[in-house]
Amino acid sequence: MSADFSELRVKMVDGQVRTTDVTSAPLLDAMLIVPREAFVGAGQRDLAYIDEDIRIAAGADGPRYLMEASPLAKLMQLAEISQTDSALDVGTGTGYAAAILSHLAKSVVALESDPALAGTAGSTLSELGCGNVAVVTGPLAKGHAAKAPYDVIFIGGSVEEVPAALLDQLAEGGRLVAVEGQGNSGVARLFLKAGGVVTGRRAFNAAIKPLPGFERIRAFEF
User: Fold this and answer.
1) pTM for the predicted model, two decimal places
2) b vs e for 96-127, b when ≥16 Cβ sit within 10 Å of the residue's Cβ?
């Protein structure tokens, strides 16, 4: 018996998202509209709305995941996205976050390092009519300078630290949201650019799966 995905979306929003202080009406509406099951494999669709990160690919540099709904929503709410914003989705995977962003921002660049995932994202987003999303490929930590600056940058997994290359691609007044640190030590941070200077602040604790390619370079020690 097939799942009623529309009903599961409502349960996800009401049980996982609203209960974690997400109150943005446009964001909640987007999460009710975008079919999360379209962004996982056919054999995973019945699991698309579980309250966990979902593995979507093995990945050459490490496994890739569809982020759990609650931290994803909290990060996007933190960014205060408006319909005039240009957004960069770093590590789009199969494109779910980009699809949500497409309902919130004016334009979205969905950056993916894995060509196979980028192809899947492009096809799915096109099928769903997300015409304001452009899928591009390249190293995640370098961002996509060709279409910078961005009003919003969303990083789709935890990182050891946010690289300067991404902060440099923020527009004046721009916001970058990311989770720094792994496991239970993860902390969501909001970075703001004002007067040409980027500052960051701690927002909330968040335990999400890491995004490969953001490992801190270790200094050599004697």
Assistant:
1) 0.94
2) bbbbbbbbbbebbbbbbbbeebbebbbebbee
